[in-house]
Amino acid sequence: MKAERQKDSVREAFHARMHANNMYGLWELASQMTAQPQPKMIPHMWPWSVTEAIVAESAEAVPVGDERRALQLFNPGLGGRWATTNNLIAAVQILLPGEVARAHRCARRTSLHGAGGFDPDAELGLA
Asked: Of 6, 7, 25, 46, which is the most buried if we count CB atoms within 10 A?
C-alpha cells in the first residue's frame, strides 16, 4: 500500500513538472487524437472596405500606448481562439504621423498607402 502511494506521488510530481513546462504525454492525449488533421478554421475574408473603416476609426478611438494599435483578424471557425489560422496570426496596425509603437519580436510590416507611408522593413533593408 505504501509503495503504491509512493508511485502515485512520483507520477503526480512528474506530470505536474511536465505540464508546467508545456508538455503532455501522448498517453494523456491519445483519446483526443484523430486519424487525420481536422482543422476547424473556415475560409474567411475580411473585406478591405470594412477593415479600412474600422482601422481608420481605431486611429481616433484608441491611443497608441503600451500596446500597438493593431486589430487582430480572428478566424470565425476557431471559436474565438487567438489565431487567424491554425498556425498564423495576422493583424492590421495603424500609426499616425509621428506615432511610435513598441517593437515586435517578429513581424512583416507593409505600408498600404504609398503617399507618405512608412515601410519599416524597407528602412531596415528587409523588403
From this structure: 46
Range of the domain at 14: 2-32
Count of CB atoms within 10 A of residue 94's CB? 21
**Any idea what the Cα angle at residue 79 is, between residues 76 and 85, rounded to 5°?**
60
pLDDT per residue as tens digits for the range 80-95: 777 788 778 888 888 8
Q: Give the DSSP letter of residue 31.
A: G
Confidence of residue 109 (pLDDT cuts 50, 70, 90): low
**DSSP-assigned letters across all residues of 62-114:** S---SS--EEE---GGGTT-S-SBTTB--EEE---TT------SS-----S--
Q: Do 55 and 28 share a domain, yes or no? A: no
User: CA-to-CA distance for 10 and 61, rounded, in angstroms?
Assistant: 54
Report the alpha-carbon distance of residue 102 to residue 120 in Å, rounded: 13
Same domain, 70 and 95: yes
| Residue with the three cell numbers 505600408 | 111
Interatomic CA distance for residues 102 and 109, integer angstroms? 14
